[in-house]
Write a structure and sequence with these properties.
The chain has about 400 residues and is an alpha/beta fold. The protein contains 13 helices and 22 strands. The chain binds ligand PMT. The site of ligand PMT has 28 residues, from helix 9, helix 11, strand 17 and helix 12.
């Protein structure tokens, strides 16, 4: 298995064919083309005739910097046999938005437009994001066609529920661009170096109630843990994300378990690690909880109030098994020494040390600067980088440990 050097552009060097078909949601297809390009992909856009009633090839050309394909019979085309050439070169085919007509064409194996042709000619993963009126989506004919293409291995992404072009509420909206990007990344990464592996990641801080309206918490945003979940998903892992209350969306394809307290997180992690290949505890579980949380809101009396705190369980120290155990160390001083001491104290294979007082690192930032310290005494000091790239550097180390244990 060749490892790649991951960057902030997760689709770097990948080729995605984006099929856009007739729907009022075509304008969102323009955003999808742009975001795929920003993620590093070479994006070849194919438009049906109906799509061109809603959007022009020029918009896609401008955003992808590449020719746009609209006509099966174009004698000036830069490709000899467009549908075959595009289909063969693709790492993924995403059809977004996908109309009822296009899904019917796919189910029937028809080849009378460039999108349907490309679908028949590709062996790459195919993702279809339907967008249509709610009644149309619910129709037996559409559902039967969806079932047929799904049985043939197509991944159906959405549709989402919400306000439709008709003004009605219902199921039929094109899912958000972020979801589509996640789906493409997951599909392309499915055969990556974590294929067949299960990774458990914790993210965010926990909240320990003092009374029904107040709690003890910390400044963890969950960004580091979510970045690890995304990175592992992008390399083919099945990912379980155990998170405290965070404001971040769940990455596409990741199983999420929401918890509030450290005791809840301990229980969720204990169950999730059964049969897992790796655990990465990026969460910041509260180390203490109130000895007795009040049943009712504590009233202000003007005098000081003492809250007795008792220690919480150490989650990562309390789980063991064949999985690789990665802990984090959030330190404010003596980074290397304090982090290294936690390896033995918590039985870790690797610790990720971050100085949470340094600029642009630690809590809530999109970037982090860490030292990776192994139980074998090795250490690797990384420069400031995005949490997504930090996540890949951690996963590189974990992958090497898993390989050694085989
Ligand atoms: O979420 P972000 O805003 O992106 O911020 C990221 C982060 C700073 C929270 C993250 O990079 C980080 O350092 N996470 C660990 C925070 C922490 O609790 O550090 P610690 O040194 O107190 O704990 C050491 C290890 O034990 C950690 O892996 C922690 O998850 C784990 N732990 C801690 C307490 C506890 N009761 N049970 C645990 O398992």
């Amino acid at each position: 298995m060749t490892t790649r050097a991951w960057t902030d552009r997760p689709l770097e060097g990948r080729r995605v064919v984006l099929g856009v078909t007739g729907s009022i949601a075509c304008y969102k297809g323009v955003d999808v083309a742009s975001k795929l390009t920003q993620a590093g992909a070479l994006v070849d856009v194919v438009l049906t005739m109906s799509a061109q009633q809603f959007v022009t090839p020029l918009s896609f050309r401008g955003l992808t910097g590449r020719p746009v394909f609209t006509n099966m019979y174009d004698p000036q085309s830069p490709l000899a046999e467009e549908h075959v050439m595009l289909a063969r070169a693709a790492d993924a085919l995403l059809i977004a938005p996908a109309s009822a007509t296009t899904i019917a064409r796919m189910a029937q194996g028809m080849a009378d437009d460039m999108v349907a042709l490309t679908y028949l000619a590709t062996t790459a993963p195919v993702l279809v994001a339907p967008a249509m009126d709610g009644q149309m989506w619910a129709h037996d004919a559409v559902q039967a066609n969806v079932a047929t293409v799904r049985e043939r291995g197509v991944t159906i992404v959405g549709p989402a529920e919400g306000r439709l072009a008709s003004g009605h509420m219902g199921l039929g909206r094109l899912v958000e661009t972020e979801t589509l990007l996640g789906a493409v990344r997951a599909a392309i990464g499915a055969k990556g170096d974590y294929a067949g592996k299960r990774v458990v990641v914790s993210a965010g801080g926990t909240q320990e109630p003092i009374d029904p309206v107040r709690y003890i918490g910390n400044r963890s945003s969950g960004k580091m843990g979510v970045a690890i979940a995304e990175a592992a998903r992008d390399r083919g892992a099945r990912v379980t994300l155990v998170c405290g209350p965070i404001a971040l969306a769940t990455p596409y394809g990741v199983d999420r378990i929401d918890v509030k307290t450290t005791a809840d997180m301990a229980e969720a992690v204990r169950i999730a690690v059964e049969g897992a290949d790796a655990l990465s505890m990026a969460a910041a579980p509260a180390d203490f909880r109130s000895a007795a949380a009040a049943d009712q809101k504590i009233k202000r009396t003007g005098v000081s109030l003492a809250v007795e705190l008792v220690p919480n369980p150490d989650i990562i120290a309390s789980v063991s098994g064949a999985f690789v155990k990665v802990g984090f160390a959030a330190e404010t001083q003596h980074l290397r020494e304090h982090a290294a001491a936690k390896i033995a104290a918590k039985g870790l294979d690797l610790i990720v040390a971050n100085d949470v007082t340094a600029p642009a690192t630690g809590f809530a930032h999109d970037t982090n600067q860490v030292i990776l310290i192994g139980a074998d005494g090795t250490s690797e000091e990384l420069p400031l980088m995005s949490k997504y790239v930090v996540a890949h550097r951690i996963l590189d180390r974990v992958a090497a440990m898993l390989e050694q244990r085989r």
